[in-house]
Design brief:
The chain has a domain of 97 residues: Up-down Bundle (Rhopdopsin 7-helix transmembrane proteins). Helices cover 81% and strands 0% of the residues. The chain has 6 helices and no strands. The chain starts with a helix and ends with a helix.
Length: 176
């Protein structure tokens, strides 16, 4: 049996559709005046729609853009699953789950840097060093933010170090 990209995408789409009813379990407990829960729901559904869009559009673009769109679809899929879960936690506890937010970001933000690097590489010559510097800035930003929010270090220090990581990413993007 020959495995094709089209077959893989069809399998992934089928899996997503099969999982969605299970991810919607807390919807029955979602109150109409729970704007946080509603925003989690809206964002989750928008991310699912974006995932479908990105995966379908890979068939319509030039080859150099296909991987970038696939990575975009992975980012939105991972985020959608996490936001469905975070909505459930919010509905049940009334608290935003800090650790799950950072788990989501630890996966999606580096993938976004991969995507950004792929886009740069598709339009100009760019060294692999740019990729690694973007990753360093990403991990500095995320680690400092988490440590500050979780109380391992002062929130102000975590915020400041996180901003330094973000500024480093911006420097790499605009001045590489």
């Amino acid at each position: 049996m020959k495995i094709t990209l089209k077959g893989i995408k069809l399998g992934l789409a089928t899996s997503i559709i099969g999982v969605l009813p299970n991810l919607a379990s807390a919807a029955a407990n979602l109150e109409s005046d729970d704007f946080v829960g509603i925003s989690f729901w809206l964002i989750s559904m928008a991310l699912v729609a974006a995932t479908a869009f990105f995966f379908m559009e890979t068939q319509r673009v030039e080859g150099k853009w296909k991987t970038s769109l696939t990575v975009s679809g992975l980012v939105t899929l991972v985020a959608a699953v996490h936001y469905f879960y975070m909505r459930d936690v919010w509905v049940e506890t009334g608290e935003t789950p800090l650790v799950y937010r950072y788990i989501d970001w630890l996966i999606t933000v580096p993938l976004l840097m991969v995507e950004f690097y792929l886009i740069l590489r598709a339009i100009t010559a760019v060294s692999g060093g740019v990729f690694w510097r973007l990753m360093i800035g990403t991990f500095v930003m995320l680690a400092a933010g988490y440590m500050g929010e979780a109380g391992y270090i002062s929130a102000a220090i975590g915020f400041f170090i996180g901003i330094v990581g973000w500024a480093y990413i911006l420097y790499e993007i605009f001045f590489w």
